[in-house]
């Protein structure tokens, strides 16, 4: 009766450390390059459904979490009125 021997895989210390170093460098480069690729683009007023209002309302840009005082917005291009509104209004 023949006995089958399983083939054991051995990895040498140099190969293990080399592969670990390559993996760590690759991860570090990916972390540094990843955020640089993702650029935030503000929407146009038309894309956001922006409406400039004359009178105050219950929902208006001045109360929105994206509004930057006195007349800017995180997600909409150009100056916005504090009394304005868009479809991305957030409390």
Tell me what the structure shows:
The protein is mainly α. The protein has two domains: 11-40; 41-91, High potential iron-sulphur protein (High-Potential Iron-Sulfur Protein, Chain A). The chain contains two helices and two strands, in the order ααββ. It has a two-stranded antiparallel ribbon with strand order 1-2. Strand 1 (67-68) and strand 2 form a beta hairpin. The relative contact order is 0.16.
Order of helices and strands: HHEE
What is the H level of CATH, i.e. the homologous superfamily of the largest domain? High potential iron-sulphur protein
CATH class of the largest domain: Few Secondary Structures
CATH architecture of the largest domain: Irregular
Approximate helicity band:
25-40%
- How far apart the termini lie comes to 78 Å
* Radius of gyration, CA atoms, in whole angstroms: 28 Å
* Number of helices in the DSSP assignment: 2
Instruction: Please mark out the parts with pLDDT under 50 across 5 or more consecutive residues, or reply none.
Output: none
Q: What is the beta-strand fraction?
A: under 5%
What would you call the shape? Answer: rod-shaped
How many structural units, i.e. domains? Answer: 2
Q: What strand order characterises the main sheet?
A: 1-2
Number of strands: 2
What's the pLDDT, averaged over the residues? Answer: 84
The description of the largest β-sheet is: 2 strands, antiparallel
């Amino acid at each position: 009766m023949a006995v089958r021997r399983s083939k054991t895989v051995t990895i040498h210390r140099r190969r293990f450390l080399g592969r670990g170093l390559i993996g760590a460098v690759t991860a570090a480069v990916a972390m540094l390059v990843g955020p640089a690729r993702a650029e935030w683009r503000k929407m146009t007023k038309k894309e956001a459904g922006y409406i400039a209002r004359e009178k105050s309302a219950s929902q208006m840009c001045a109360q929105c979490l994206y509004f930057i005082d006195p007349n800017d917005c995180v997600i909409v291009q150009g100056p916005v009125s504090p009394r304005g509104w868009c479809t991305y209004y957030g409390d």
